[in-house]
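New to this. Comment on this protein:
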Amino acid sequence: MRFFIICFLIFSTAFSQNNVEKAKQLLADKSFYKAEQLLKEEIKTHPNNLEVIELLGDAYGHQKKWDNAIIHYKKLKEQKPKVANYHYKFGGAMGMKALVVNKFAALGLIGDVKDAFLTAAKLDPKHIDTRWALVELYMQLPGIIGGSKSKSFKYANELQALSKVDGYLAKGYIYEYDDEPELAEKYYLLAIKEGGSLTCFDKLTNLYEDQNQPEKAVANLEAANVKHKRNAMHYQIGKVCAEYNVQVDKGEKCLLIYLENYSAKDGVPKAWANYRLAQIYKHKKAKSNALKHIDLAILQLPKIKVFKEERKEILTL
């Protein structure tokens, strides 16, 4: 009998792990609801499996089901109170809930959010995500309930000690949030020089766009494209040229390259590239080309209102 019990336990454990791996793949594929359903069944037979609890919390979080995510992350931190990442996830879910409830309810959540992040930071001196969360939290909170630029800088400095790139990006974020674009630009440029990831380039591009500096945005996108050689960069360049009516010949060329080399991994549907081309041809007063591309955009994504509005404007040329 003992032999059969052992065999059953081995089979049960293997089956459970198989479901866990399936759930991980579903989450990676962004099939969050399917992952949720699988994990809800799995947790019935393994209610104390921390990995299953965490994955189910993640599945809820990805679907913005914050109350359910909070319940599961709370279980994790109560069962393993010295694991920094459990406190970080709990604080993150609480913080996201605070963004969607009314202001009075949000005030009641802020203390728990802060405590969770501070606990995670204390438990793990090398936890980068927690320090990023604290940088953003202290900048976004009003001073009357604990917001503090100096505290935000404290964690930005801790980030820089762990990762120069993250430290520079954090300081760029602080200065951008505090409406000091020159200093934000300085630190984003340092981040590009140090690491040069697409994230670094994106932060600087967004700053330039927010500051109504499209020429600088285009130059930065071109530099990103030289380094990373991604077709998606062609769309981004074309988008800025179309939105701001600058370097329209370059924008036209980039968008045509984007369409010619398009694949699903590029992210932005072809309809949006056609929409941007229509904008560029509108700027050039090339009505027939503008209509051709806006009609393609509408055909490809017929429910997008801005495409139909753009078509009305083109007809007035």
